[in-house]
């Protein structure tokens, strides 16, 4: 699971009002190279929840992103875009759990696939 | 009955029907779709490689909805549509980032094997579509071959409604031609789609998979839909328009 995916996943347990972001408890982390596409990143920048990304990235062992939302002007810097690219697309959570911020319910991640299935009493 | 949409392409003319299927069988890549315990309660039917490639090719070539985009494949099963989206990249400059969603663990396992075989990168999430909650509209395009809703009533509409919520650009979906009117009405009226168009009519070659299938193979008429998502600006314009109409109505009633 990439951090791009983590940035949109939300806990949808019945009664939960704020299921985002899911806290990551990593066990195995892998990295896979992806082609660098600055236009894609510039477009994604406005859609991403920056705090969730920078925190998730830190937990995954990559602390190169600024904690607070950077100014739009950073998009002109290739150095910044490359860090953003790496955090968003190249770091994978292979094994671990995602924790619902409100209920503490754990969603397991096996072989890179988060299991977001809900139990009957959670729907 | 609604007249055929302009510009609709009927991919299979009756004259060369047989030839078409022969060619499909020949071009089928070695994806694993058969030989698994297919689950009827989930209405699992494999998407033919021919339909998948037509769907993704049209989405990219006519509408630029695939390359360089975040694409979600709802009810991805063995990953045929999502993987077709990643394979399109070979012809284009930019990678698309594909996320397949399915509730069935066995299907996801096969999707993983298929992706590895094709050396394609596809993210997978195990989740039921009607329980899916995604923050914002990070996904640009949703492609899907949802359950037709024959055995599990309303499943097709559930997929459609969620897809139109998470996509920022467009949804491509296959539905039985017999449900055309219903889909159009629901998409525009209930799910807030900006437009709903059948972009081509296909024949879905359904092999005999389940015991209750009486005939050996069945051809089902299927529509390939493109549903455009209402953008925030478009929504504002619509509201503004309604406001103006109401105002002018009030004005004219005063005059009378």
UniProtKB/TrEMBL annotation, chain A:
<dbReference type="Pfam" id="PF03966">
    <property type="entry name" value="Trm112p"/>
</dbReference>
<dbReference type="InterPro" id="IPR039127">
    <property type="entry name" value="Trm112"/>
</dbReference>
<protein>
    <submittedName>
        <fullName>Multifunctional methyltransferase subunit TRM112-like protein</fullName>
    </submittedName>
</protein>
<comment type="similarity">
    <text>Belongs to the TRM112 family.</text>
</comment>
<dbReference type="InterPro" id="IPR005651">
    <property type="entry name" value="Trm112-like"/>
</dbReference>
From TrEMBL, chain B:
<feature type="domain" description="Methyltransferase">
    <location>
        <begin position="67"/>
        <end position="154"/>
    </location>
</feature>
<protein>
    <submittedName>
        <fullName>Methyltransferase-like protein 5</fullName>
    </submittedName>
</protein>
<dbReference type="Pfam" id="PF13847">
    <property type="entry name" value="Methyltransf_31"/>
</dbReference>
<dbReference type="InterPro" id="IPR025714">
    <property type="entry name" value="Methyltranfer_dom"/>
</dbReference>
<dbReference type="InterPro" id="IPR029063">
    <property type="entry name" value="SAM-dependent_MTases_sf"/>
</dbReference>
<dbReference type="InterPro" id="IPR002052">
    <property type="entry name" value="DNA_methylase_N6_adenine_CS"/>
</dbReference>
<feature type="coiled-coil region">
    <location>
        <begin position="108"/>
        <end position="135"/>
    </location>
</feature>
<dbReference type="InterPro" id="IPR051720">
    <property type="entry name" value="rRNA_MeTrfase/Polyamine_Synth"/>
</dbReference>
<keyword id="KW-0175">Coiled coil</keyword>
């Amino acid at each position: 699971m990439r951090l791009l995916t983590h940035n949109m996943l939300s806990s949808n347990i019945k009664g939960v009002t704020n299921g985002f972001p899911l806290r990551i408890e990593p066990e195995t982390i892998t990295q896979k190279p992806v082609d660098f596409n600055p236009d894609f990143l510039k477009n994604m920048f406005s859609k991403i929840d920056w705090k969730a990304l920078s925190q998730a990235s830190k937990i995954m062992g990559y602390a190169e992103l600024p904690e607070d939302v950077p100014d739009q002007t950073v998009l002109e810097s290739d150095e910044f875009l490359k860090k953003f690219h790496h955090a968003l697309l190249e770091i994978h959570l292979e094994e671990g759990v995602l924790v619902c911020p409100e209920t503490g319910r754990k969603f397991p991640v096996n072989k890179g696939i988060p299991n977001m299935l809900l139990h009957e009493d959670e729907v | 009955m609604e007249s055929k949409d302009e510009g609709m392409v009927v991919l299979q003319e009756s004259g060369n029907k047989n030839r078409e299927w022969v060619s499909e069988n020949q071009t089928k890549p070695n994806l694993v779709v058969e030989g698994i315990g297919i689950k009827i309660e989930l209405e699992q039917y494999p998407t033919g490689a021919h339909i998948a490639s037509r769907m993704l090719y049209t989405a990219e070539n006519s509408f630029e909805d695939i390359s360089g985009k975040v694409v979600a494949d709802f009810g991805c099963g063995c990953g045929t549509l999502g993987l077709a989206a990643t394979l399109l990249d070979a012809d284009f400059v930019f990678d698309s980032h594909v996320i397949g969603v399915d509730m069935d663990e066995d299907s996801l396992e096969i999707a993983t094997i298929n992706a590895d075989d094709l050396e394609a990168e596809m993210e997978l999430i195990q989740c039921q579509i009607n329980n899916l909650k995604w923050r914002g509209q990070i996904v640009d395009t949703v492609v899907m071959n949802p359950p037709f809703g024959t055995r599990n009533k309303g499943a097709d509409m559930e997929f459609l409604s969620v897809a139109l919520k998470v996509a920022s650009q467009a949804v491509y979906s296959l539905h039985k031609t017999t449900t055309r009117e219903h889909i159009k009405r629901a998409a525009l009226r209930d799910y807030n789609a900006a437009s709903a168009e059948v972009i081509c009519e296909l024949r879905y070659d359904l092999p005999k998979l389940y015991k209750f299938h009486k005939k050996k193979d069945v051809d089902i008429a299927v529509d390939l839909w493109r549903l455009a998502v209402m953008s925030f600006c478009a929504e504002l314009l619509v509201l503004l328009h309604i406001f103006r109409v109401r105002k002018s109505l009030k004005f004219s009633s005063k005059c009378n």
